[in-house]
From TrEMBL:
<comment type="similarity">
    <text>Belongs to the AB hydrolase superfamily. Epoxide hydrolase family.</text>
</comment>
<comment type="pathway">
    <text>Secondary metabolite biosynthesis; terpenoid biosynthesis.</text>
</comment>
<keyword id="KW-0378">Hydrolase</keyword>
<dbReference type="Pfam" id="PF00561">
    <property type="entry name" value="Abhydrolase_1"/>
</dbReference>
<dbReference type="InterPro" id="IPR029058">
    <property type="entry name" value="AB_hydrolase_fold"/>
</dbReference>
<feature type="domain" description="AB hydrolase-1">
    <location>
        <begin position="12"/>
        <end position="136"/>
    </location>
</feature>
<dbReference type="GO" id="GO:0004301">
    <property type="term" value="F:epoxide hydrolase activity"/>
</dbReference>
<comment type="subunit">
    <text>Homodimer.</text>
</comment>
<protein>
    <recommendedName>
        <fullName>soluble epoxide hydrolase</fullName>
        <ecNumber>3.3.2.10</ecNumber>
    </recommendedName>
</protein>
<dbReference type="InterPro" id="IPR000073">
    <property type="entry name" value="AB_hydrolase_1"/>
</dbReference>
<dbReference type="InterPro" id="IPR000639">
    <property type="entry name" value="Epox_hydrolase-like"/>
</dbReference>
<comment type="function">
    <text>Epoxide hydrolase involved in the biosynthesis of cucurbitacin and mogroside tetracyclic triterpene natural products (e.g. siamenoside I and mogrosides IV, V and VI). Cucurbitacins have cytotoxic properties and exhibit deterrent taste as a defense barrier against herbivores. Mogrosides are nonsugar highly oxygenated compounds used as high-intensity zero-calorie sweeteners; they also possess pharmacological properties such as regulating immunity, lowering blood sugar and lipid levels, protecting the liver, and acting as antioxidants and antitumor agents.</text>
</comment>
Length: 308
């Protein structure tokens, strides 16, 4: 596992879990903010990303929630840490919620971005739900065929692939035409990029993904229903770790069908996470909030964790 770590072994540890398509550097601003405040900051590249290699990189089973949780436990053991603060974004948030659900004794508190905790629905898998609502061209559905999206990405400049992805996951769902109808490369390359996506940042990510490819990141989507099945036995369990949730007002997951009711109106989120203390919505911010508003997000994390 490739891990960035800074801070004293005696300091309370924060583990940062990134999303797609990201690597540990997506947390660089939070690390630089929180480490001087007395925290040991640990940010791994999740399995399948860059140097965190696995035995069968194309096997979706390898990216299940069970295996990611095992990776976090192994990291804690290697670093001799009994209890951690957790911060997750996107897929990292999904994994952080799941870790809190299954190992609450190992977490001091959690701050998750973009993806709220959602209990498993025994009647419909995640993928079936997305397909029913958005159709087969929805990006999570189009990412399912092993090798297909990798080939489409490989037919383009990696920088252009990332420009499209980093400008997506906002108010409008990312829909990808079938390959026979133009595929991913038929999507327009944004002329105006997110403010956080500087030439330096884009160049860094382009270099990394040009070398590693996208199979690892795409495989989390291919393992979505595998993780759903694994978590079904805990469908009625509650997340009891002190929690804070942050999302950009323009972030796509916030606009899933019924999500705003679940978070703000009918009390579903608070019912599933009884220890949820705060929900913060940041206006005019889309999916990659920790990079778009680094100081604001870092401040929210610090103000919450210092209570524990």
């Amino acid at each position: 596992m490739n891990v960035a770590s800074v801070g004293s072994e005696s300091d309370p540890a924060i583990v940062f879990l990134h999303g797609f398509p990201e690597v540990w550097q997506s947390w660089a601003n939070q690390i630089l903010y929180l480490n001087p405040k007395g925290y040991r900051c640990i940010a791994p590249d999740l399995r399948g990303y860059r140097k965190t290699e696995i035995e069968v990189p194309g096997d979706p089973e390898s990216y299940s929630v069970e295996n990611i949780i095992k990776d976090i436990l192994a990291l804690m053991k290697i670093l001799n840490i009994d209890k951690i603060f957790l911060v997750g974004h996107d897929w990292g948030a999904f994994m952080a919620w799941s870790f809190c659900l299954l190992h609450p004794d190992k977490v001091r508190a959690v701050v998750n971005l973009s993806v709220p905790y959602i209990a498993m629905n025994p009647d419909k898998s995640f993928l079936d739900g997305f397909r029913d609502y958005y159709g087969d061209l929805y990006y999570m559905c189009r990412f399912q065929a092993i090798g297909e999206m990798e080939d489409e990405f490989a037919s383009m400049d990696t920088a252009d692939v990332l420009k499209i992805l980093y400008s997506s996951f906002g108010l409008d769902p990312l829909m990808i035409p079938l390959e026979k109808d133009g595929g991913f490369k038929s999507l327009p390359i944004p002329k105006t990029l997110p403010s956080w996506l500087t030439d330096e940042v884009l160049g860094c990510y382009t270099k990394l993904f040009r070398k590693s490819g996208f199979t690892g990141g795409l495989s989390y989507y291919r393992a979505l229903d595998i993780s759903w099945k694994l978590l079904l036995p805990w469908k009625d369990a509650k997340v009891k770790v002190p929690a804070k949730f942050i999302a950009g007002a323009n972030d796509h997951p916030l606009h899933f069908e019924g999500m705003k009711d679940y978070i703000f109106i009918n009390g579903g989120f608070k019912k599933d996470v009884p220890s949820l203390e705060e929900v913060v919505i940041i206006q005019d911010v889309p999916h990659f909030a920790n990079q778009a508003k680094p100081d604001e997000i870092s401040g929210h994390i610090y103000e919450f964790f210092k209570k524990y």
